[in-house]
Design goal:
The chain has 14 helices and two strands. By secondary structure, the protein is an all-alpha fold. The chain folds into two domains: 48 residues; 233 residues, MetI-like (MetI-like fold). Strands 1-2 form a two-stranded antiparallel sheet.
């Protein structure tokens, strides 16, 4: 076996020294929490993190928990509404802002601002706007003779309000990503299509859409995972004691309540593992199906 030179040893030492902080951070803040959540899901965790082995009892309890099934239903309802809306609106805005229009840079900034605004600030502003007594939206409705609507306390409207806020918050970020994908398409394709007599709509469906499918796939996966993890908007906008919470509570909100309000960390860990498995399965299905519609050429 060839002996390693002193220079090569120094290079290895320098390299491992450089990546050590990153590996340490990943271990402390990612890998250990994953292992701990999995470990706690098989235990009953009490005060001062004292744990007692209960096996699969947390999972058995979870599958018999009607509140959990309602939270899971709410979560899938958010995904079904928010994900398509965000992708469609972001794509339309990206196409619009790729055109030769005045104030294009201004509109890009305006649409992107929600993405860099703290979610807590966004939730508080929209909570004021949706307020049933003195909110801006109801004030405008009153000007037209329409009675005030209880957006955040009505179970049938609360989850829709959450969808509106979440869509508004996520469109700008995804718009920037899709805009970058569109601008990466060679102009020669559009010039050739124009010479063949193809209009703007035909060019969009035959050139733009097929060539940005890799970007669309990325946006689809990240938006879907983010929607499954919806938490802060619901937690800060909806009253925790009202009937609207039951109709708008997501799996992550239910996990948080069990872990930090009900002190059921073992049960909350089982909820987290269950949601993780669901996201992993759906992501795996997406990775499998993307071969049929994503064009990498």
């Amino acid at each position: 076996m060839k002996k390693m030179s002193k220079r090569k040893k120094m290079d290895y030492i320098a390299g491992y020294t450089m990546i050590f902080p990153l590996v340490l951070g990943l271990g402390v803040f990612y890998f250990y929490p994953i292992f701990r959540v999995f470990y706690d899901s098989f235990h009953e965790v009490g005060a001062f993190n004292k744990s007692k082995w209960v096996g699969l009892q947390n999972y058995v309890t979870m599958f018999h928990d009607k509140t959990m099934w309602q939270a899971l239903f709410n979560t899938f309802r958010y995904v079904i509404v928010i994900v398509p809306a965000v992708i469609i609106l972001a794509l339309l805005l990206a196409v619009f802002l790729n055109m030769k229009i005045k104030g294009k840079a201004f509109f890009r900034v305006v649409y992107f601002i929600p993405a860099i605004t703290m979610s807590a600030a966004v939730a508080m502003i929209w909570r004021w706007m949706f307020n049933g007594d003195y909110g801006l939206i109801n004030y405008i409705l009153n000007l037209f003779g329409i009675k005030s609507i209880r957006f955040l306390s009505n179970p049938n409207l609360a989850w829709i309000s959450i969808c509106v806020v979440t869509i508004w918050s996520n469109v700008g970020y995804n718009m920037i990503i899709l805009l970058a994908g569109i601008q990466g398409i060679s102009k020669s394709y559009y010039e050739a299509a124009s010479m063949d007599g193809a209009g703007s709509i035909r060019q969009f469906f035959t050139i733009t859409l097929p060539l940005i499918t890799p970007t669309l796939f990325f946006v689809l996966v990240t938006t879907l995972i983010g929607t499954f993890q919806t938490f802060d908007t619901i937690y800060m906008m909806i009253s925790k004691t009202g009937l609207a919470m039951a109709a708008s509570e997501s799996m992550v909100v239910y996990f948080y309540k069990n872990a930090f309000e009900f002190s059921k960390k073992g049960y909350a860990s089982a909820l987290a593992i269950f949601l993780f498995v669901i996201i992993m399965i759906i992501t795996a299905v997406q990775m499998k199906l993307q071969k049929k519609w994503v064009n990498y050429e």
